[in-house]
Amino acid sequence: MTRFYSGVFLLSRLAAVVAAGAMIYMVGHIAYEIILRSFFATSTFVLDEFVGYGIGVCVIWSLGYVLEHGDLIRVGIVLEHLPARGRALFTAAAALITAAMSAGLAWMFWIRVARAWSRGTVSSSVAAVPTWIPEGAIMVGLCVFSLAALAHGLRHITGHPSPAPRTPLVTPVE
Amino acid sequence: MDTLLTAAATLAFLLLFLGLGVWVFVSLALVATTSLFFLHGMDLSRIGSIAAGIIYRYSTSWELSAIPMFIWMGEIIFRTDISTRLFRGLSPFVDYIPGRLLHTNVLGCTLFAAVSGSSPATTATVGRITTRELGRRNYDDRLSLGSLAGAGSLGLLIPPSIVMIVYGILAEQSISRLFAAGVLPGLMIAALYSGYIMIRAKLNPALVPAQREERSAMDFLRAIWNLAPLVGLMTIVLGSIYSGIATPSEAAAVGVVAAIVLAAVTRQMSLGLLRDTLMGALRTSTMVCSILITAAFMSTAIGYLHIPADVAKGIASLQLPPWGLLVVLSLFYLGLGFFLDGTSIVVMSLPISLPLALQAGFDPIWFGVYLVLMVEMAQVTPPVGFNLFVLQGISGRSIGYVARAALPFFALMLVGVALLAIFPSIALWLPNFFYG
Amino acid sequence: TWDLSSEYPAGSLQGRTAEFFANAVTEKTGGEIEIAVHHGAALGYKSVDHFDAVGDGALQAASSAFVFWTGIDPIFQLSSLPFLAPTTKDVHDLYGLSKPEYAKVLEDSNQVLLLATPWPSSGLWGNKAFTATADLESVKVRTYDVASTETMKNAGAFPIQISWADVPAQLSTNAIDAVLTSPNGGVGVQMWEEQSNFTNVNYASSLQAIHLNRDAWNDLNDEQQAAVKEAAADAEAFGWNLLSDATAKDFDTMRENGMTVTEEIPTEFSDALTAAAQPFIDQWVANTGERAQSIMDAYKNR
Ligand code: NA
Ligand code: NA
Asked: Taking burial as the number of CB atoms within 10 A of a residue's CB, which of A77, B267, C195, C207 is the most buried?
């Protein structure tokens, strides 16, 4: 099982690297646009569209990575009063529901992707980006997250430690 | 009443999923799904089609993009000496004000609100920088988090503001006027917060660490030097907006580039730092944005259930006098604020509440400011309050703790609403001064 | 109850047409069908999303601007082709000729075209009147789609695409000089706070349709279908009538707020603008194929 968990986490990390790339891209595109507008009186004419794709990839592709680092928010009201094993099982149930939900959502995106492909839908900008590409990107991101959530759930049932390094986002107050 | 029953059932679903410890962003999507399924009787394929459409629309929306970039800028500030220098620089100046560095939360958020149009971006960016420094210096955690939750929502009232733009477009009002109208009420709320912090610090000196020694003129010069990096950064970002070089939505990217340059100039930039800031920003912004995206889906579901529209129609049928209407509308918006995010509150209720307000003689610009204040309050009310989630994420405290910490600041916003209702010119004076 | 989604405010021309249609349906079916209109994108959908949302039955009905559907099928570009149909009569004729094509594309995606009504023709908002090509030289003008961007570029201006929400701030800092939008669009956000002139160049009156999911349509009995058809016809007439009244009223509002309105432009300028638009139109006809060519021929020979 360890191989499965660390394999899935590797996938999540790779996806997070892509998401980080998307973030750099957003900054770069906006900076480029500002330069074009200020000094060359022109524009890429696709700023909001492409930065939109960027933010989608940025958020959806990093979900698994962020989940495994424990940064996704949950409310602890009930969990806090449970013994460790009970907490793990609640977490596992939540993770399996999450996995099912994102898989279902990925399926709905697949329907959109297939339709956009067969109909030849493009964005109505000068770039005329085939819509199946960004929709497909979100679908892939959801599949990766679904897998990450599944591994997260199984890991809590089997009591396996997290493959993610413990680097809390919260700054410990010394 | 059927609508109230539907609303109660939706709220019950929400409390159930959140209570069971399902991640917040998943809970919101589950609430949307279950209420459409059980309360509307939709089949799963239709719900799935709605979900995919809305989630695609929001996750790829330009409006969302400023959040991760502002958070990245904050992360660079956080991981370089810019933030520690800020606090060292501020210390001598605030020593004589009761509450001392706690005011950096209010001041920082107010300043940042002039750059950012979104409340979670303001809270996350400023909170990331201040919570560590304040905690390290033994300031009261609760007062610190509460003031952050309250002041973080000033991003909506002080221009630029996304909610105001939405209101302006829907209510067919001048966005310039609305922006001008938000300035004084925003500063008033900030002043209320600072006043409250001072009173609390006076009453209970234990909330603030003991005062340090006397200072020489040299110390003050050094302090100013310490403030220079952040002041410079803010000047660049604000300057880019107010000179027209960047739109408010683009200012976040300007901030990131400026922060990277600043870190490079001060010889703190390395590939390792770049990677750490990037991954840190990714984690915080995914935490925030994932909730915003599924919250949009839940808003859509609530729209399909016609809850806001039906309740607003119910209010319309009461034929209330202006003051009565204002009280009932405020209760209505507080109720919506329990489970909806900012923009949806405005969008869903406006077609009915605006004509009511206009008929009762309220000025449309004033009503916009009032509405934005109600939306600000929604940011700090549980179970769905974005500032609460953001602060839970960056402080590690429980949502209940953060909500209790925010309660006094919520009450201060209520005071603000009352003042605004009694003295409408707080909002209307500045736009009338500028635009006649 | 049907849900009808619209991206635009309740007070806009299209918002009022949608509201009129909803009331007419309820009235004509004796209350058997009620329509909840969700204005201002209250359900979260934009026009571009409506096409599939209605086709899939996520929504029963929607009011959508064709200009956002050009990526789904290029035929929807037709009504926003620049300087092709300057008068209301031209716009109406062009709509009559192209309606079967629109209906067919919607039909193929499981929906019914109920009606289409025009937006007031776009013009140039700015701090001066635009009456000659020289006036456009190096002017930074906010455009909204590929057609307007290309046309403005050819006419010598610097087109800039920014989101509508950023327009007031960009105007007040002089980052842009002019905005291409309808009188109604500018009046809606009280653009006279930043701009002093409106030039009615008669850019294009693009269409907005109300469309209905086919399954929802098939669920109706014959009388109900007839009633909905009738309501749609009435709402269509209502929407087209709004057009001329609304534009005159908007011009009055602008003047009341101290703006200068230039209602007619010199023929020479108008010809130059038409010429600037021609390459885009030719390109569009070539890309869209025979159906575009036949509509254009019929339009020319009418
Ligand atoms: Na702001
Ligand atoms: Na809330």
From this structure: C207
- Chain A CB contacts of C68 below 8 Å: 124
pLDDT of residue A174: 33
Do A95 and B23 contact (CB within 8 A), yes or no? Answer: no
Read off the pLDDT band of B97 (50, 70, 90).
Answer: confident
Torsion of CA C210, C216, C217, C218, to 10 degrees: 160
- The yes-or-no verdict on residue A169 having pLDDT over 80 is no
pLDDT grade for B149, boundaries at 50, 70 and 90:
very high
Contacts of A124 in chain C (CB under 8 A): 48, 67-71, 145-146
CB contact under 8 A, A107 and B48: yes
pLDDT at B249 (0 to 100): 80
Chains that touch B (3 or more CB pairs under 8 A): A, C
C121-152: pLDDT as tens digits = 999 999 999 999 999 988 999 998 899 999 99
Ligand 1 mean position, distance from CA B409 (Å)? 18
CA distance A93 to chain C (A): 30
> Which bound ligand lies closest to the C-alpha atom of B156?
1
| Model confidence pLDDT, tens digit, residues B214-270 | 778 888 888 888 888 888 988 998 899 888 888 888 889 999 999 999 999 988 889
Interface size A-B, in CB pairs within 8 Å, comes to 194
From the centroid of its chain, how far is CA B161?
A: 10
Least confident stretch, A17-21, A101-105, B219-223, C92-96: B219-223
Q: Is B244 on the interface with C (CB under 8 A)?
A: yes
Please check the confidence at residue C243 and state whether its pLDDT lies above 90. no
Would you call C46 and B243 a contact, using CB atoms and an 8 Å cutoff? Answer: no
Instruction: Choose among C10, C12, C169: nearest Cβ to B160.
Output: C169
Residue B145 buriedness (CB in 10 A; 0-12 / 13-18 / 19+):
buried
Q: Which residues lie closer than 8 Å to B183 by C-beta, 6 or more apart?
A: B158, B159, B430
Compute the nearest-CA separation of C32 from chain A (Å): 33
Closest ligand by atom to B340 CA: 2
- Which residues neighbour B195 within 8 Å (Cβ) at sequence distance 6 or greater? none
Is the preceding peptide bond at B308 cis, omega within 30 degrees of 0? no
Which residues hold their Cβ within 5 A of ligand 1, which is an ion?
Answer: B 113, 117, 155, 158, 161
Q: Please report the pLDDT score of residue A173 as a whole number.
A: 39
Nearest to B284 among A51, A104, A169 (CB): A169
H/E element holding C158?
A: strand C158-160
Listed residue (C266, C274, C296, C288) closest to C130, CA to CA: C266
Which helix (H) or strand (E) segment is C118 a member of? Answer: strand C111-118
Mean pLDDT of A14-40: 94
Q: How far is C278 from chain B (nearest CA, A)?
A: 32
Q: How many CB atoms lie within 10 A of CB C251?
A: 17
Distance CA B153, CA B118 (A): 8
| CA A55 remoteness from chain centre | 10
pLDDT 10s digits, A61-91? 999 999 999 889 888 778 888 898 889 999 9
Q: How far is A40 from chain C (nearest CA, A)?
A: 10
CB atoms within 10 A of CB B242: 15
* A83 contacts chain B (CB < 8 A): no
